[in-house]
Amino acid sequence: MPVPRSLVPAAVLALALTATGCGATVETSPTADAKSVTLTNCGKKVTYDKVPERVVTNDVGITELMFALGLEDRMAGFAMPDDKGDLSGVPWKDGYDEVPWLSKDQLTKENVLDARADLVFAGWNYGFREDGGFTPDALKKLGVPSYVLTESCRNGRTDSSRGIMPPLDALYTDLTNLGRLFGVEERAAALIAGFKKRIGEVRAEAPAAGDRPRVFLYDSGQDQPFTSGRFAAPEQIISEAGGTNVLHDVQDSWTTVGWETVVARDPDVIVICDYGDVSAERKKDFLLSYAPLRGVSAVKHRRIFVLDYVDLVESPRNPSAIARLAAYLRTVPQAGRAS
Hints:
Radius of gyration: 20 Å
Oligomer: single chain
Largest sheet: 6 strands, parallel
Domain Fe/B12 periplasmic-binding: 54-336
CATH class of the largest domain: Alpha Beta
Family: Belongs to the bacterial solute-binding protein 8 family.
Strand content: 15-25%
CATH superfamily of the largest domain: Nitrogenase molybdenum iron protein domain
Structural class: alpha/beta
Protein name: Iron transporter
Helix content: 25-40%
Keywords: Signal
Signal peptide: 1-24
Distance between the termini: 33 Å
């Protein structure tokens, strides 16, 4: 998860299912003795000597990338908290039914070794962490290769800042890389084409730059809000939906800012990330009652929209989130918007 930290509409589910080719009917996974594959992951060349057969994933978005590509048969399990909403209605329900749920916490070395994993697919703050020593280098010493979620790649601006490319580019990069690694390039290309088509249709209805509502993403936190800079998925979810992320200039993915920054940028809409022990309703109550936000346009007009956690991290649900947020933003009056 992007520490600290809905069902997709039926039409979008149908699109996702069509784009994946309904699983293995489009392509079959390659045999384990296929030749090695070299990919660029987080700016580095990484060579995988064989096609992984026992992949372990961390968190819902990463897990659903595998499911969307029809790679359940290449998985040994996944780890994720049980606060990610109702998973029974997603296009990849069969994947959740088929693949073992290893842990309701983050992955550990013990999970990986017990599962006899031959690849760990996770991300920085989506499983990989220096605290506890669960890192790609530590796994390499155990003989287990890794693939790092591109949204989470560290960018070198600070010791922990993340994001090396626009969020949707990160999504497409991972789908392309996974397609190559597992020999399902056509399936990956079809999925990406479907996503781009859906997003393009939404973009065509977006308002001009000067008419776009200002949007603040609220993940969690009361003393300081945890939110999204330009390299986390909400950046393009907001922009493709026709809004402007008020923290577009923050060169990080998921990060903390001060409430004074939020007040100064006066968002027209607040998007709540729904997950965890604090419900979206409780988060909304806090925002509406927090005195420093009293003069903010979104609070004055009670313009608060909720998206699920998996909508707002890199995942195959991002296009659906863009469409749903766009429909909401089109209801926001233009008066008072920033140019």
